[in-house]
Structures are given as structure tokens and as C-alpha cells.
Write a structure and sequence with these properties.
The protein is α+β, with helices and mostly antiparallel strands. The protein has six helices and eight strands, in the order αααβαββαββαβββ. It has an eight-stranded mixed sheet, with helices on both faces. Strand 7 (about 210-215) and strand 8 (about 220-225) form a beta hairpin.
């Protein structure tokens, strides 16, 4: 048998030895072939025990929090018209309130999935309506950002490299904060203080009086706003007076 025939015979033997023997091409008893299944690597499953969270479902809500309302999520946007077109024309939200703060260089737009007919015509009515509407999105436009040449400029927090190239190592964050509204900001903050909550801003701190920011265990900011008019009190939970402090601009750099 020539070398080419031997190679052919070996190849055929691996495929169908019984067929070779039946036609006389195989002169020796065929070897028994053992089928060895391919082994698929098993995924590594990390063992963990989920914490028991049932009490957070069944426990009675603290009386002091029964009127607290999850009112907003704030995100920064580059172009307010592009964002309002998306949220209102695409997702069906309605612009229910907007306010500009030229002294600090930004404007906020609140959108919510509500009937436009329900939105009051006057500014104060819109404020109260907004602060009592759950599930709003606050779109914050930092003036001038729409003129920047690059496409997206804010980091979304979801494995996103956008906004990470600043020389000082800070991140240009798109997410700003969650927001809840309460009957009395000052009383709520007294309670937060008694519970050991970390404050980013107390009601009389900074330039905007009558609202506060606290931090959750991971450092996310929660804004505390009134459900009614933006009132102030002379002294807050940290002992700061209403005429103390100044505005701190955190809109462009968020570490």
C-alpha cells in the first residue's frame, strides 16, 4: 500500500471502520473507537448568602416619613432642547416646571408623565404641583455646555469613559441626585441628624436656603425639598443661620 493510500485508509478508519471492512479495504480487524465527549468548562459559581430583607417589606413605616415623596431623579444634559424633545415627544412626558439661575449658570427643567391639562398656569402653582408629583426627572442644563464640540460630555456611571479625562482626575458626572419632598425640610433634617445621617448641605448651608442634601451609604446624594413654598428658618440642624454660607458650584465637577 502506498503512503497516500495508508493516509486515506487511516482517515477513513477514523470515520467508518465497519464500512471499510465491508468493502475489503480494511485487512485487519478494526480497532474499537471510543467516543470521548467534549468537556464544557463549568462556570464558577460563587457561593453567597443573600441577606434577609423581609423586615423592610413588613415593617411599619416611621410616622415622621409617611408624607415623604420620591419626587425626582436629577441628571445633567448638554442640550436642553434635544433632551426635552426626547423626554416629551418620544417618551410622552410633560414639562411641568422650569427655573433658571443665571447667577450660578444653570437652568432646571422638570418633566413627568402627567396630563398637560393638570399643570397650573402660574409659577407658584407649578412649583407646588411639581414638588407633589412623584417620579419627576430633573434635567439640569449648565449654560454653555450645548456649544461644546464633543458629542456626549457627561459620564453616565455605567462603565462609561465619557467625562473621565480631566487632568485633576475628577469625573464630569451626568447623574446628580435623587430627590424627595417632605412637609418640613428643617424638621426632617433634625431627624436625619439624630439618626447619624451624613449631610452634604444643611438647609441653611450654601447659597440656596431651605433645601438640604444628605448622602446614602454609598455616597449618592439625596436632595431634601419642601412640598410647599420654599421657606427658611433662622437656624438649621447644624446651627447654621439663614444668612450664613455661600453657593458652592458642584455642577461641572463631581468626584
Amino acid at each position: 500500500m502506498t503512503n497516500s493510500c495508508r493516509i486515506l485508509a487511516v482517515g477513513l478508519l477514523q470515520v467508518a471502520p465497519l464500512a471499510l471492512a465491508s468493502v475489503g479495504l480494511l485487512q485487519v480487524a478494526p480497532l474499537a473507537l471510543v467516543r470521548v465527549p467534549l468537556r464544557t468548562p463549568r462556570p464558577v459559581i460563587m457561593s453567597f448568602a443573600a441577606p434577609d430583607v423581609e423586615r423592610f417589606i413588613t415593617r411599619e413605616r416611621a410616622p415622621a416619613t409617611k408624607e415623604f415623596l420620591m419626587q425626582q431623579t436629577m441628571v445633567r444634559v448638554k442640550d436642553p432642547i434635544a433632551s426635552l424633545t426626547f423626554y416629551c415627544d418620544v417618551l410622552g412626558f410633560t414639562l411641568i416646571m422650569h427655573r433658571s439661575f443665571p447667577q450660578w449658570g444653570f437652568t432646571v427643567y422638570f418633566v413627568a408623565p402627567v396630563d398637560p391639562a393638570a399643570v397650573p398656569a402660574d409659577e407658584e402653582g407649578r412649583w407646588s404641583f411639581c414638588m407633589s408629583t412623584p417620579g419627576c426627572i430633573e434635567l439640569t442644563w449648565n449654560h454653555g455646555s450645548e456649544k461644546e464640540e464633543s458629542g456626549r460630555i457627561y459620564n453616565t456611571g455605567n462603565s462609561d469613559n465619557t467625562g473621565n479625562s480631566d487632568p485633576d482626575g475628577s469625573v464630569r458626572g451626568g447623574f446628580g441626585h435623587l430627590g424627595i419632598t417632605v412637609p418640613d425640610v428643617y424638621e426632617a433634617c433634625e431627624r436625619f441628624k439624630s439618626l447619624g445621617v451624613t449631610f452634604h448641605k444643611t438647609p441653611n448651608g450654601g447659597g440656596m436656603k431651605g433645601l438640604a442634601f444628605v448622602k446614602d451609604p454609598d455616597g449618592y446624594l439625596i436632595e431634601i425639598l419642601p412640598q410647599g413654598p420654599m421657606i427658611t428658618k433662622q437656624v438649621d440642624c447644624a446651627g447654621a443661620t439663614v444668612d450664613s454660607g455661600g453657593y458652592k458650584d458642584n455642577s461641572k465637577k463631581c468626584k
